[in-house]
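In this supplementary section we document a worked example of the pipeline. Step one takes a protein sequence of length 232 as its only input; no multiple sequence alignment statistics are reported here. Step two produces a three-dimensional model, which step three serialises into structure tokens for compact storage. The input and output of this example are shown verbatim.
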Amino acid sequence: MKPSPATLFLIVLIALGVALDKGVWKVPREWNPLAPLVVSDPVTPVTHWKLKALSGDRDACLNALDTAPDIRYVPLADYTPAAGCPLENVVRVVHTQVSFNASFVASCPLALAWTLYEQHELQPLSQRIFGERVARVRHYGSFACRNIYHRENARRSEHATASALDVAAFGLEDGRRISVLDDWRDGGERGRFLEDAQQGACHYFGTTLGPDYNAAHANHFHLGMRGISFCR
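The serialised model returned by step three reads:
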């Protein structure tokens, strides 16, 4: 059977990693598939592969999360809430480089994807457009034990595994507030910030949905780990 392109790519990554580990080649850590993921490192295609690989490795994911600047989180034991929907490899995020309107439960890979996005996309974007950093983020939550759109016969939502965060608004250091509901495509710098913020998120989350997707997302960005760069 002929191996798939994804399998061949994985084999090449592993072979490269072994060569690097044995000192045959010396390249930056962000290009070494066997080196730990560090949030502040430049983002490469290997970074995204590492992020996916951490979904089943709690210790490695937590170690990577510890490299994020200004983060405060609490690791949680695997548990099943009364409503069902078992949760595995989850943390409670208290704050990162931004403060949130409320702490939230997130899968470790989701929390890690957020810190990468924040470090490499969100804050640089805010500095370019507003000359200010994002200081606050308002969200509508992460975990909810439900099916997609609450439909009885639909598949489980990403929220059922705490693998998605719904972001509604951003607050700048100077007090300005940018809202998905109020400022999407407003023709000014706020609308441009939101459009670029959504596009930037597509590089870190498997599924990124916003107001142009459907009416259910008119007031927030859905940032989830399922899929591969589904961006609408």
